[in-house]
Design goal:
Elements (H helix, E strand, L loop, with lengths): L1 H26 L7 E5 L2 H5 L7 E2 H7 L2 E5 L6 E5 L2 E5 L5 E3 L5 E2 L1 E5 L7 E6 L2 H11 L6 E16 L10 H4 L5 E16 L10 E8 L5 E19 L1 E5 L4 H5 L7 H8 L4
The structure holds zinc ion.
């Protein structure tokens, strides 16, 4: 008897709460629900936690667009149309098999409803200001894609290093590449400032040419007739590396300054 009374009491308390939730949901704009799948955190990457945590095959099961890096910071990852590519510090590009390991990556299933064409894009700040206008909020993660003809692309690719080497020091050796008149795709994300311990705040884009021969972490670009697509991410699934170094790391510090230095290139 006591149990059934308690159950009944619980039901009575729960009912109005459910009604309020339903009302709140009705007032939200209708939108497809998209999920970000992320491996590790920006702070861990900054501190040199580069041991492989998740396989490329797992990333590909959770998304068809994304970016990241590989075990021991061995180059830049670009996932385009479900295929995962590795851009190494010698500039070479290869498609990865599903067994390759990543210490840090972000992927999503990319299916935006609309695209916007940017007739002239003189530089990367013009591109990001156009994306600013397409984002309805600063408080969500957004997945981004740009396709088109680039008169100029400037990238870099991280050089393979050792576990524990801080990202700022590892990034001191990061060969840069300049490409001219190349068709290709930019993939990446916009991350809210509040999530800076998880991911690179602001815009982060990786390039892959249509011929799959050139790519890297984007530093600058210029293009014409670029097709821009944006997708708002409704939630973020973070997978934490079950590696020895991640268990022991002190992840309390703010990684923003180191990230800005490491991700911005040698300018
Ligand atoms: Zn990058």
């Amino acid at each position: 008897m006591r149990n059934s009374t308690e159950t009944g009491g619980f039901k009575n308390r729960a009912r109005p709460r459910r009604r309020r939730t339903a009302a709140a949901q009705q007032s939200l704009p209708k939108s497809a629900h998209h999920r970000l799948y992320q491996v590790s955190t920006a702070t861990a990457l900054v501190q040199g936690i580069y041991a492989g945590a998740v396989r490329v095959g797992t990333l590909r099961r959770h998304g068809d667009l994304g970016l990241g890096t590989f075990e021991n910071l061995d180059g830049e990852m670009a996932i385009v149309d479900g295929h995962c590519f590795q851009v190494r510090s010698d500039g070479s590009v290869r498609e990865c098999d599903d067994d390759a390991l990543s210490p840090f990556a972000v992927v999503t299933r990319f299916a935006p409803a609309e695209a916007v064409t940017l007739a002239q894009c003189p530089d990367m700040s013009h591109l990001t200001s156009r994306f600013d206008a397409l984002r309805p909020s600063d408080n969500f993660f957004f997945a981004l894609r740009v396709d088109g003809f680039f008169e100029y692309v400037h990238t870099r690719a991280m050089h393979r290093t050792v576990e524990g080497m801080p990202l700022v020091q590892a990034a001191a050796v990061q060969p840069e590449f300049e490409f001219y008149n190349v068709s290709g795709t930019l993939v990446g994300f916009w991350t809210p400032e509040y999530a800076k311990t998880l991911n690179v705040p602001g815009y982060h884009l990786h390039f892959l040419s249509d011929d799959r021969m050139r790519g890297g972490h984007l530093l600058e670009c210029r293009g014409t007739n670029l097709r821009l697509q944006v997708q708002r991410e409704g939630d973020c699934h973070v997978v934490l590396p079950e590696t020895e170094d991640f268990f022991k790391a002190d992840l309390r510090r703010d990684p923003a300054a180191d990230l800005a230095k490491a991700e911005g290139g040698k300018k």
